[in-house]
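Input chain follows. Return structure tokens only.
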Amino acid sequence: MSLQFEIEILGYRTDVVEELAELIIEVVANGGSVSFMHPMSKKTAMAFWETSLASADRGERIVLGAREKGKLISTVSLLLNCPENQPHRAEIAKLMTRVDKRGRGVARALVKEAEQIAVKKGRTLLNLDTAADEGAAGFYESLGFNKSGVIPDYALKPHGGLTDTIIYWKRIGGNC
């Protein structure tokens, strides 16, 4: 069953920070390896999103959200603030979808929208990383991302134990 949803660029507002905090807490509680450990406090979640959305307001990233009937169900960030010698690159980060909304095309639509925005901003290369254990490797490969390699024992899983991470890249725009 597919979802009916709208994608929007999220800006800094208290209600948006609250929604994003709820989403990341749910994802971490369900094993999502998005840089945080379970249990994740609301204070930690709010602080992360306050910082991220302030960065977005400065033009350093874009935070996209997908809404179904007005409720935030998924997000992805496009990191644009790369070093001076990498103005052609952007990074996909923090792709998260509510557990009961997964497998219905929303994450795919968000990543494709992020890619289109990156192209409009003159970027020709995207990169990302994902956990090897229970990560989204197959999903990213289905979107045309190329595996660069695996870094062993890169991070802790949200409920403990180490996981490898897989590094991916994709040429976009005129360099496809």
